[in-house]
Amino acid sequence: MCNPRTGAGVEWGMSSSQVLSKGNSSATLGPDRLIVKQGRQRKEIPLEAVSEVRADGGTALRVVLTDGAVHRLDGGNATATEAFRVALDEALPAERNPAGSSLVVTEREPSSIKAWQVWVGILLFACGYMGYVVWVGHSAPDPETWPLVLFAVFPLGVGLPLTLFILLKTVDRVALARRGITVLGAMTYHPNGRQRGSYVFTDTDGGEHTHQPTFGRSSESLQIVYDPRSPGTSAPRRPLPELLLMYFFGWIISLGILALGVLMVVAPFM
User: Fold this and answer.
1) Are strands 25-29 and 33-38 parallel, antiparallel or unpaired?
2) Which of 86, 54, 92 is nearest to 73 (CA)?
3) CA Rg, the chain, in Å?
4) Measured between alpha carbons, how far apart are the two ends of the chain, in Å?
5) Cα angle, residue 39 at apex, residues 214 and 119 outer, rounded to 5°
6) Shortest CA distance to 19 belongs to which of 80, 79, 70?
7) 39 — alpha (psi -120 to 50), left (phi > 0) or beta?
């Protein structure tokens, strides 16, 4: 058939690539490889490294590599999952490579937010906040409180990032408590033999990852819990009472500082 814009012939027999997705994870079936994305992690699995694909319940698949390693793919519904299984099974080549996991390429994609965008946002916020301070000094019901509003930037500057940090860590800890896998990480070293302070571990798919503890450690090994759906999400294994105590005081302190900043901002209207 002729393309009405270019006059060129169009090959209608070409089929679109199948995509299986759920939440922030997706799997795309390419001509010769399977591309799996989980958050910012990207895996490329050559089809020659796949031994078979099995259904795992109604909405998940287990991709078994030729060396026995297994990759789980989550789907949104049973129909899409089964269609993807059939398409992947039909796309597997007749000859397979026994190397399996060693052929899988794992990388972490860079953040979509650029540094200049962050700085522009900070600059715009600073300009808007200074405009608010000037307005308070001239037009607010209690103009004498403008110094209080000005210095509110300090508790806000500490409380807001700290609260967001603890919120993200809490979300990670909940995910790790639900499906985390515990492994033993090994200390990494500089070429001169000095400890780096970070630990390296291998996930069940053979991928190597580095965990940087929030607080410095010097032990040769460390029990690390990681999320199999996003191995870049990891944390040191801690007893539950210790975790509850840490996050309880973390939330109290961060929200207290943030509340102080908010009260200072709205002081002219109180």
Assistant:
1) antiparallel
2) 54
3) 26
4) 72
5) 65
6) 80
7) left
Size (the chain), residues? 270
Q: In this predicted structure, what is the pLDDT of residue 76?
A: 81
Residue 30 token pair: 């390419």
Place of tokens 């031994």: 51
The alpha-helical segments, DSSP class H, found in the chain are: 78-91, 115-139, 146-151, 153-179, 240-266
Find the angle CA(216)-CA(218)-CA(220) to the nearest 5 degrees.
135
Q: What is the mean pLDDT of each run of 10 residues along the chain (270 residues)?
A: 43 64 86 86 90 89 90 87 91 91 80 79 89 85 84 92 94 91 88 82 78 77 87 88 94 96 87
Closest alpha carbon to 93 in 43, 45, 37? 45
Q: What's residue 252's pLDDT? A: 97
Q: Which two tokens stand for residue 83?
A: 């269609």
CA atoms within 13 A on the CB side of 137: 11
Question: Could you tell me the two tokens for 270?
Answer: 């109180």
- Provide the pLDDT for residue 191: 81
- Residue 91, C-beta contacts closer than 8 angstroms, at least 6 positions apart: 29, 47
C-alpha to C-alpha distances, 253 to 159, 162, 191, 267, nearest whole angstrom: 8, 9, 40, 21
Contacts by residues 207-211 (CB-CB < 8 Å, ≥ 24 positions apart): 207/43, 207/104, 207/106, 207/231, 209/234, 211/185, 211/235, 211/236
Question: What pLDDT shows up at residue 39?
Answer: 75
